[in-house]
Design goal:
single chain, about 70 residues, alpha+beta, 3-stranded antiparallel beta sheet, 3 helices, 3 strands, about 50% helix, globular
Length: about 70
């Protein structure tokens, strides 16, 4: 895995693009970051949840799944 700061930057870039595209109404699915993280599902989820605890991203519950959003 690359350094943590670079991975976080890439994840935030994807989330920002989706935020601009949808005017903040839709987030990103967890699997949209698989090509960056290259981690098993449990480790990927733990990494994204750690970013959420650090207030870098927000995890929201949609009707069918959890999504990654920019923090409010």
């Amino acid at each position: 895995m690359e350094n943590k700061e670079e991975i976080e930057r890439q994840i935030l870039e994807i989330v920002r693009k989706q935020h601009e595209k949808s005017a903040g109404t839709n987030g990103c699915f967890f699997d949209e970051f698989d090509h960056i993280l290259n981690l098993p599902i449990k480790e990927r989820t733990a990494f994204l949840e750690q970013m959420a605890r650090e207030k870098k991203i927000s995890i929201g519950q949609s009707l069918n799944s959890r999504k990654i959003l920019l923090p409010k």
